[in-house]
């Protein structure tokens, strides 16, 4: 990996792309610390010093992760990239349900551009909703538990509308910056920006683990956490690269006067075919009952038994929460793989172009074979996702560092996945510029 970056810096055009990407990321990080108008930054900093990120509203913990801490700073980029991710997931799921979107997906580049346009519109709608709810929490004093300071100067209508529009515009700027990186930089723009925001929290989280204990014990726990983190990262890299290659043979056929086919290839099916999507889905589903308990808490005279049970058993770190979380991840892993990989479509495409799996008849047997292989691969993949997502809870039981433990859950999956994808793109561009000619 280091040699790939070193060679990229020696190539003039790749060096320009890397420097351009770093410049955009610097602007992105700057917008993550500039406060929104009408925000009392002094009181915000005091409340942040009294509370940890775990005390933020549970509904916004995922946004806090993807915003790199900008959410609790009430910055102009407070929403981060989360509205765009949510919009992309919604459009991807609707593609399976709505025939019009499915037809656009099959049209190629023009259809993909249209779906991307719909994703942008939906992102802005979600940004307005998220920013409105988030500003409401800040005004009502529900952003930081136990902090009664006013986080805004003026609670009248016009300043509040300005705050909402500023955060929404910040989301639009983030989309534009991500597309600039994709077009003129290195890697996928949105993924690289998520990587930057999550990685920006790692140094503070690691140092907080050391500072939470005194003397040699702090350094010992710091070293143990770092060693566990490296081991987890190696395991995630291994699982993200693991795949089952199903061999495919194409028969020879005449096209005009030319004889085509007769080649051998394979269908790569990853063990973790769903990526980080099941973890995001499971986290979002678990926020819904917590949100219900916040709005329907009940009273001492008329207690709400459902809200009380949710507050007691569905808190982050409880056995019930971890069990439900693991089960939801496994369920969404199977669900997402079933809608993104269609054995019937793959079998039909192979049959159309004269391809077949050695030892398996074309048509129905090929469909059943692919479905069987996919099911057997999804089982270890879903289990792996659930274990990685529960690493912070395991760290809390062993070390008591759940809130600060950075090597687990969504963060480590995204960092490893984006890092591997970016390195592969750099290596592929280097190979295009360093190939042997026909003559030496």
Give an overview in words.
By secondary structure, the chain is mainly alpha-helical. Helix content is 68%, strand content 5%. It is built from 18 helices and 5 strands. The relative contact order is 0.11. Mean pLDDT is 80; it is low at 52-59 and 436-440.
What strand line-up does the widest sheet have?
Answer: 4-1-5
* Strand-residue proportion: 5-15%
Shape: globular
- Give a short account of the largest sheet: 3 strands, antiparallel
Poorly predicted runs: 52-59, 436-440
Q: End-to-end span in angstroms?
A: 29 Å
Helix and strand composition category: mainly alpha
Helix content: 55-70%
Number of helices: 18
Overall pLDDT: 80
H/E element order: HHHHHHHHHHHEEEEHHHHEHHH
* Number of E-type strands: 5
Radius of gyration using CA atoms only: 25 Å
Main attributes of the structure:
mainly alpha, 5% strand, 18 helices, 440 residues, 3-stranded antiparallel beta sheet
Protein topology:
Blueprint: H1 2-10, H2 12-31, H3 41-50, H4 61-66, H5 82-97, H6 99-106, H7 109-140, H8 157-184, H9 189-199, H10 202-211, H11 215-241, E1 243-250, E2 253-255, E3 258-260, E4 264-270, H12 277-295, H13 305-313, H14 319-340, H15 343-352, E5 355-356, H16 364-389, H17 391-399, H18 409-433
Antiparallel strand pairs: 1-4, 1-5, 2-3
Helix pairs in contact: 1-18, 2-8, 5-6, 5-7, 6-7, 7-8, 8-9, 9-18, 10-11, 11-18, 12-13, 12-14, 14-16, 15-16, 16-18
Q: Brief overview, please?
A:
The chain has 440 residues and is mainly alpha-helical. The chain has helices spanning 2-10, 12-31, 41-50, 61-66, 82-97, 99-106, 109-140, 157-184, 189-199, 202-211, 215-241, 277-295, 305-313, 319-340, 343-352, 364-389, 391-399, 409-433; strands at 243-250, 253-255, 258-260, 264-270, 355-356.
């Amino acid at each position: 990996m280091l040699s790939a970056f070193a060679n990229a810096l020696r190539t003039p055009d790749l060096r320009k792309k890397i420097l351009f990407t770093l410049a955009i990321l610097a602007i992105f990080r700057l917008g993550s610390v500039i406060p929104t108008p009408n925000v009392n930054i002094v009181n915000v900093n005091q409340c942040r010093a009294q509370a940890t990120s775990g005390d933020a509203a549970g509904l916004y913990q995922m946004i806090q992760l993807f915003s790199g801490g900008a959410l609790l700073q009430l910055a102009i980029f407070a929403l981060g990239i989360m509205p765009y991710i949510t919009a992309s997931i919604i459009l991807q799921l609707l593609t399976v349900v709505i025939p019009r979107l499915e037809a656009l997906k099959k049209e190629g580049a023009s259809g993909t551009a249209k779906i991307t346009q719909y994703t942008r519109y939906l992102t802005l709608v979600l940004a307005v909703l998220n920013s409105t709810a988030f500003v409401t929490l800040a005004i009502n004093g529900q952003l930081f538990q136990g902090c009664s300071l006013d986080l805004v100067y003026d609670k009248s209508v016009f300043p509040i509308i300005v705050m909402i529009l500023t955060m929404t515009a910040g989301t639009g700027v983030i989309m534009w910056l991500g597309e600039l990186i994709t077009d003129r930089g290195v890697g996928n723009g949105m993924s690289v920006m998520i990587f930057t925001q999550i990685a920006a929290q790692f140094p503070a989280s690691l140092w907080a683990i050391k500072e939470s204990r005194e003397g040699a014990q702090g350094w010992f726990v710091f070293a143990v956490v770092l060693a566990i983190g490296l081991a987890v990262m190696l395991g995630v890299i291994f699982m993200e690269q693991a795949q089952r290659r199903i061999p495919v043979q194409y028969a020879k056929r005449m096209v005009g006067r030319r004889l085509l086919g007769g080649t051998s290839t394979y269908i790569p099916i990853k063990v973790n075919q769903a990526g980080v999507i099941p973890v995001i889905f499971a986290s979002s589903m678990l926020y819904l009952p917590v949100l219900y308990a916040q709005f329907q808490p009940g009273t001492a005279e008329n207690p709400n038994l459902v809200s009380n049970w949710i507050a007691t058993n569905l808190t982050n770190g409880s056995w019930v929460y971890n069990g439900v979380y693991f089960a939801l991840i496994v369920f969404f892993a199977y669900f997402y793989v079933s809608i993104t990989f269609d054995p019937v479509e793959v079998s039909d495409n192979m049959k159309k172009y004269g391809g077949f799996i050695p030892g398996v008849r074309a048509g129905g047997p090929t469909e059943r074979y692919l479905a069987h292989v996919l099911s057997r691969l999804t089982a270890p993949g879903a289990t792996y996702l659930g274990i990685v997502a529960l690493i912070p809870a395991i760290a809390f039981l062993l070390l008591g560092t759940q809130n600060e433990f950075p090597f687990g859950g969504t963060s480590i999956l995204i960092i490893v996945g984006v890092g591997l994808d970016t390195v592969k793109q750099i290596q592929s561009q280097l190979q295009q510029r360093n190939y042997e000619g026909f003559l030496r």
